Task: inverse folding
């Protein structure tokens, strides 16, 4: 099935909800179809309903944090990875937090709450070991070029 077919089905379900005059029946249809009785204000901004970015700001921000952390770890040279792991193992985290796995090796197993915690402590970790030799050579030149620093 194509995206257009799903879009057509959803449009029909929305139409049935709006045509229902009894509010309790309208509520039952909303529950049955998993739709809202009134469209979200953000629905007007959508281009393709099933390919659009999530509308939940929490998930959007977590996605951006996860991408930034992944890209940051990919910039590390072998020396940088070794230094990061050494700092990571000795970094003191709050007692109420459970142990987080190494972000370089176990990035894909992180949950959203893990990514938020890592985002809070990552600047402190980087501050303890990061130097030019911690990054891949070609990446250092690219970063310097992008921020217009020679």
Result:
């Amino acid at each position: 099935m194509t995206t257009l077919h799903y879009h057509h089905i959803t449009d029909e379900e929305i139409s049935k909800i709006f045509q229902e005059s009894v509010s309790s029946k309208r509520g039952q249809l909303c529950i049955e179809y998993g739709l809202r009785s009134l469209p979200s204000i953000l629905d007007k901004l959508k281009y393709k309903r099933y390919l659009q970015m999530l509308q939940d700001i929490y998930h959007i921000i977590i996605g951006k944090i996860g991408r930034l952390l992944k890209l940051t770890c990919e910039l590390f040279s072998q020396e940088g990875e070794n230094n990061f792991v050494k700092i990571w193992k000795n970094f003191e985290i709050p007692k109420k937090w459970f142990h987080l796995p190494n972000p370089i090796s176990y990035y894909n197993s992180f949950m959203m709450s893990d990514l938020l915690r890592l985002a809070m402590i990552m600047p402190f970790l980087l501050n303890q070991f990061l130097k030019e030799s911690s990054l891949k050579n070609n990446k250092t030149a690219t970063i310097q070029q992008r921020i217009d620093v020679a």
